[in-house]
Amino acid sequence: MLVIRNLSKTFASAGEAVHVLRGVDLDLAAGERVALTGESGSGKSTLLHLIAGLDAADAGTIRLGDTEVTKLSDAGRAGLRRDRIGLVFQQYNLIPSLSVADNLAFQARIAGRHDAAWTRELVERLGLGGLLKRYPEQLSGGQQQRVAIGRALATKPSLLLADEPTGNLDEATADDVLALARDLVARTGCGFLMVTHSLHLAGTLDRHLTLHSGRIA
Amino acid sequence: MTRALWVLAVLLSHWRRHKMQFATLLIGLIAATALWSGVQAINQQARNAYDRAAATFGGARTAMLVAPDKATFSQDLFVKLRRAGWPVSPMLEGRVQINGRSMRLLGIEPVTLPADVGNAPRLGAADLTAFVAPPGQTLVARETLADLGEQEGAAPPISNGAKLPPLRVLPQLVPDVLVVDIGLAQLLLNKPDQMSRLLIGKPRGKPAPLQSVVGEQLLRVEPTAETELERLTDSFHLNLTAFGLLSFFVGLFIVNSAVGLAFEQRLPMLRTLRACGASARLVNTVLVVELVALALVAGLIGLVCGYFIAAALLPDVAASLRGLYGAQIPGQLTLRGEWWLGGIGISIAGALVAAATSLIKAVRMPVLATAQPRAWQQRQRRWLVLQGAAACATFAVALLLLHYGQSLIAGFGVLAALMLGAALILPALLEIILLIGQRSARKPLALWFWADSRQQLSGLSLALMALLLALAVNVGVSTMVGTFSRTFVGWLSGRLAADVYISASDNAQGLAIRSWLKQRSDVQAILSGGRAETLVRGEPVEVLGLPDHALYRERWPLLEATPRAWTELVPGNAAFISEQLSRRLNVRVGDVIEVPAPGGSWELDIVGIYADYGNPKGQLAVNVAALIRHFPQTPQTRMGLIVAKQNIPGLIADLRRQFALDDRSVADQATMRAESIRIFNRTFAVTSALNAFTLGVAGIALLTSLLTLANSRLPQLAPLWAIGLTRPRLAAIELTKTLSVALLTALLAVPLGLLVAWCLIAIVNVKAFGWRLPFHVFPLEIIELVVVALFASLLAAILPVARLARMQPANLVKVFANER
Questions:
Q1: Measured on CA atoms in the order A88, A89, A92, A96, is the torsion positive or negative?
Q2: Which of A156, B140, B389, B676 pairs with B320 at a CA distance of 20 to 30 A?
Q3: Is the pTM of this model over 0.80?
Q4: From the list B18, B269, B280, which residue is nearest A74 (CB)?
Q5: In 3D, which of B475, B488, B485 has the Cα closest to residue B758?
Q6: Do A93 and B13 touch (CB under 8 A)?
Q7: Mind listing the pLDDT tens digit for each residue in B693-702?
């Protein structure tokens, strides 16, 4: 489903070129759950951003299903994120001025794919039933991340990308949140690529890849 | 569409959670639109009145023939021209008094009146018969009818005893004008077979050349797009517009501050929207739509407020225009559709301009950049340098305009450049002062005080700029008005030399009063005066007759004169000229001026220049006997009396009883003086009101900036609270900081305000009115203004500070818990 070939990305930092990705190849099948680890600065988040179309690659190709992401315009990449990708960030990135219910439904609504029954199921499975009227600032970190996962899965994406989704959570909460994510991914049948520092969590997924010096080791 | 609506709903949800910020944005837009559109409403009302005046049966917008050196000419010339194929229509103009009120009487000939002239088309066939056939009609504006206290159909008498034809309302007419058939006008004005001008219609074929028909006896005057009244009042409207514009910009400062902060707070939201798949184009479009929608709502509210502001100010504006220029403006507000549309347009344009920086940032925003909610404040440091450079460039422009500019616009340009430059350089100056404070601080809390003030400065700079401008304008305008007031009062003492003033209803009464006064032992002297009107080099000029009396020599306010000026005036071939006319005609002492008079041209040596504040017309002062010789029709109805103070009330009472004179016909010096000062004060009432509005808006700008900053202040204050400073103490420090920067700003506004006053007195007044005033400084008023500014700052600061003082510790703890 996700095919990445020879992907490269370079940043300029303090006048010097930093080669973050140096020809990454990666395949991810539909329904497969993959963990991506690596030391800080190894390019894990950059790879995730490129797949999500948040940034443009310098060279190489990313293909999601029949769509070549690297050839899409900014508007095309926005459409891809809206319709086919779910994104979860370490900082949750919820919209502070919207209630939990509105945050959950938001992406599905702008994608025109709001499914009330599926949203109800997400609310139930994520344990957010009593929190729907609250605002993000009134939730704990674990609760906020569950809302973020719900929002990402509300569109039933074909690929869920998570960047350190448990980085701000304690170990027990992290386990709970990830278990929920795994269940829901299995329920939707979407692919799941998660960047993490935790070898323990990485071990709970189907496959574990390591990024080292800009390449998949 | 649904997608856009959802994005819009998300963007709007921000305001639901930040109500104060939302209120700030709306207040800024409403204030900006209200003050701007209020001023525009007043200007539009005045322009409508000028248009009506211009359309009064051949105003300046109609080509006409006039006698080059006489007020009137013989009817024969009209007959000759008609026979030669000239499509001319005669008109006679003069002044009549009804119940002591002076009005302009226009005599027209409706049959030959060109169809494209003024109100001609509105006189239909049926009306035409009624207008021409006996007893005829007197056409008047509705306001004139009300002023006279008469009904339609009434035939009030004029001062010479004759009766006007029945009054009929013609709404398009300007107030204080009476229009009758020319035959009647000749009778009423006692000018048989005389005409003032001939209006020229569209010629059919080619008439004989003018010179071959009438020789040099008539001169063709081409129509002008701008009337004399419009030209005279331009400066007043420019002044109002400048005030409106200043308030508009101060309002936009508030909008800019609110939108800027909202944008920074919404940055993470915008990035999340993009991450969730809303395209950059969609998000940016919706941001603009949101802003336009808010501007539309605020614009509508602002327009309603503007209407009320205009309605409240209009009576004073009308009084100012009547006092300064003799322009008649109806006191009731009527507005056109363009005003409403223009107001909405300016609100939207203003909002887009104020939000331009934020919108550009949004367009350029990379989706991946990490949220930097306070980066805008840090970037401000770099801006200080750029702003300083821009300020220097603006000051250079002000200097260039001062040196090379000749017009009124250039005068206002100097003012605008000066104020813009000062506003731009203010943050840099404050930064330097605070840096010096920081470097000289020894105690840790003092060090933090200065450093934090510097950091806070960037968020407050726009509001402080608004405060600086508002205060400088207040200092400048109040200094100018104070200077004018002091000069005016001194000048009035000189001009009102006599103890009692009399204005008889006609020459016969004047003669009777004079004879009666000569019998009275309590009257020490009778000083006869008189006035005539003429055109000098195309300018309407009043010729004033002065009696030859020692009192005038001692007190008449001459600015410049030859050593024997008063003696030279007596024979009748010399004149004093008013300051504004001398500037307008570029005439100095020693020059010669030719004055068209009924008996032919009158050559006068200019032997003195005198101040004539508040008179819209240019004026020449000559010996009164010479005036009557050259203008025999001059009414000899005015006189002043020298009377011992204790005898004044008795004399006035006797005059009233003997000659049935009312308050307008006889008054003592003190009453005249009080009335003149009352009119003077009313003239500047609008300025004071706009001054107060501008200062109020600046106060709101400061309040809104402080309120919007209050939330982002928590991360700076929480660590101090954590290390042991109590909340009340923190609140006191915050208050001191705000008041310190406000005081610094107010102190910087004082020299700027004095510079503004100098510009107003030495440049704008001279260009606009033609008079230059001596410069006076009023320290007490300035101190009072600084105190008012500090009080406004205190009021603005008190709410956020009180909130801080009462803040729950849990809120302060959150700063650490949330890792803001």
A1: negative
A2: B140
A3: no
A4: B280
A5: B475
A6: no
A7: 777 777 777 7
